Every structure is written in C-alpha cells, then in structure tokens.
Amino acid sequence: MSEQTTTSVPATENRPSRVGNTGTKGLAHPTPLQTEFGSTTIADGVVAKIAGIAAGDVAGVYALGGGAARAFSAIRERIPGGTTNHSQGISVEVGEQEAAVDVDLVAEYGVSVVDLAEGVRRNIITSVERMTGLRVIEVNIAVNDVHLPQDDPQPEPPQQPRVG
Q1: Which of 23, 101, 131, 160 is the most buried (most CB within 10 A)?
Q2: What's the pLDDT at 63?
Q3: DSSP conformation class of 99
Q4: In the prediction, which pLDDT does 6 show?
Q5: Where are the alpha helices (DSSP H) in 10-107?
Q6: Looking at residue 93, what is its pLDDT?
Q7: Which of 126, 100, 96, 94 is nearest to 27 (CA)?
Q8: Among residues 162, 157, 146, which one has the least CA distance to residue 63?
C-alpha cells in the first residue's frame, strides 16, 4: 500500500479570479461575445456604469458608495460641466463570458434591507446580462448606512426684503 499525502494552500495564496476566462477555442457553442467571426470585449467601466444605473433605479436606494465617495461626488456635480458618476459605489470583475459585481449603498429608512438587496441584485443581473451578453455570476451588496429624513439639509427660510 502506498500512502497519499495532500497539502493545502492558504486561501490568500494563488487565489483564483471570481470570473471564468475561457477562450473561444474548445467552445462547443459560441457565445454572443465570442463567435467564429471575432470576439467582443467589454470594459469593466461599462459594466460598472450599467450596474450603477440599475442599482440606483431601485426604490429604497438613497445613494451609492461610501461617505467619502458621496461627498466627493457632490462637490464634482456642483462644478460647472461636472457630471454624475454612475459607477460610484460599484466595483466589477469582468471576464470573457462572466461578470461579478460588488455594490456599496445607502438604504432609505423604513425599507426592508432584505427586499432592497434582492431588488438591486435582480435589477443588476437583468440589466448587465441583457445589455452585455455577459453572465452575472454574483452580486454582493454592502449596505453601509441608512438615510433618515431628518438627515436632509433643511431649506433656509426666505429672507425678508431689506427695503419696503
């Protein structure tokens, strides 16, 4: 009898990517992004923007991103010619056929976090798969804060005219 030994590698070493990166060779069925006429690649930023818009469209999502990212975005939007960063709070990993998405968000007070996460997850998967042809293998959601109505800045009372 021979004795077999096995060794294990710690999880932090040689950690594989979350998404598969298989080429067109050996594909039994070409995918929409990889055909016999060529392949299409989609940048991470494209998937992040689609996921960000999809997440923001769900009722109960107050904002995307952490506190510092939201503050920076608010400043950028006030600058003339500034634009909204639709991929704020979104990080993605994109392979040749699959994508994984991580979302940081702030929920509205009173909304079920479980229902909100499910709605965001469903909307991101539907939007990314429909628009890109990539298969979304996971959507991880981190709820970083809950927005309370009293957190909104109160409007200043109208000033009385100085002359009558």
Answers
A1: 101
A2: 93
A3: E
A4: 39
A5: 44-56, 67-78
A6: 96
A7: 96
A8: 146
- DSSP strands (E only) in the chain: 34-35, 38-39, 61-64, 90-94, 98-108, 135-147
Burial of 49 (C-beta count, 10 Å sphere; 0-12/13-18/19+): middle
Residues 69 and 89: beta-carbon distance below 8 Å: yes
What one-character-per-residue DSSP string does 111-125 give? S-HHHHHHHHHHHHH
**Could you tell me which of 133, 144, 138 has the C-alpha nearest to residue 104?**
144
The pLDDT of residue 78 is 62
The predicted pLDDT at position 42 comes to 94
Global confidence as pTM: 0.69
* Residue ranges of the chain whose pLDDT lies below 50: 1-15, 22-27
Q: Are 93 and 44 in contact (CB under 8 A)?
A: yes
Tell me what pLDDT residue 161 has: 74
Planar angle of CA 132, 138, 141, nearest 5 degrees? 110
